[in-house]
Amino acid sequence: MSDTVQTSAPSGVQGGDGSTARIVIPEKHPMVTLLGATDSLLRVIERSFPDTDIHVRGNEVTATGNRADIALVKQLFSEMMLVLRTGQPLTEDAVERSIAMLKSGAQDPDGAVSPSAVFTQSILSNRGRTIRPKTVNQKTYVDAIDRHTITFGIGPAGTGKTYLAMAKAVQALQAKEVNRIILTRPAVEAGERLGFLPGTLYEKIDPYLRPLYDALHDMMDPDSIPRLMAAGTIEVAPLAYMRGRTLNDAFIILDEAQNTSPEQMKMFLTRLGFNSRVVVTGDTSQIDLPGSTRSGLKVVQEILAGVPDIHFSILTSTDVVRHKLVGRIVDAYERWDAENAEDADRAASDRSPRKTAPRGPRGHAPRQSHRTES
Questions:
Q1: How far apart are CA 146 and CA 168, in angstroms?
Q2: N or C: which end of the chain has fewer CB within 10 A?
Q3: Residue range 5-20, pLDDT digits in tens
Q4: Cα dihedral 153, 159, 163, 169 in deg (nearest 10)
Q5: Residue 160 gets which letter from DSSP?
Q6: Whose CA is closest to 287, among 271, 272, 273, 299?
């Protein structure tokens, strides 16, 4: 039997739009790898298709329900089998995301994207752990980094925009596509003042750069990082240190770009040298700049929209790959911001000056004449 899911044509119409499909799983694949220990993956599928009856007997799965859901279930099992063929185990999270992709008909610029294409795209492997995209938007973002000289990754916390960019940078360095990695962030306070923090300038700045070090340790041998940094192969520095430089043969990442001013953003982008790639990441909902300062990340979207070889990847709460609660928190804050923006607009309109009758001398209303024309 071939290494693919075998399905029968729908049979036994169950009234209206109902149908039944029989899905045959190749015997070489144990059903436990497809359905999960104690049928945990099967329960995920059943919860996602509550109107579909799914029964398993031996290596056959029978699904009964409306035609649209049956088609999705058949496609889901095919995608799960394609993932298993790569030797990658299936998880509940992967199955949930696969179902969401199929239901939404997710697409990237090249057309429809299959869940297996997302989950089997490997960026980097280190110490038995593989870094890969987990959503269609993440795959689009990763592909854009390969295709464009400058890529912007914009989205809320937990969408992997910085982590995936770091993985692509390490991949490019290991493949000798670039000679060095430069990681930078603006040192903007989020409730604390740098001057009040203890220590030297480097010790004051270190907390702002620590997330970049943490990501590096996930992707490289920790013992090699100090050596590479000492040699200048990897540089982690605040954005102010980029002024006046030309960066050739480098993979450059600007993180937390929402906290740059328009002038800083222009300064950074014009550091680009030959054979270099730039990734700019940020979350425009978490701006820590003073109220009168516009975010360089917001302004640059207006200025560079449509410029060739520059790509803007927009990630959303559906791309959050941290705890599921993070996505719900992001959505809740977006709703709250939208509601408060409407309230602020209404309040501003209520405070707008109304037209009043012209005033006479010393602020008194002009006296009205009671004479009538003869």
A1: 8
A2: C
A3: 555 444 333 334 568 8
A4: -30
A5: -
A6: 299
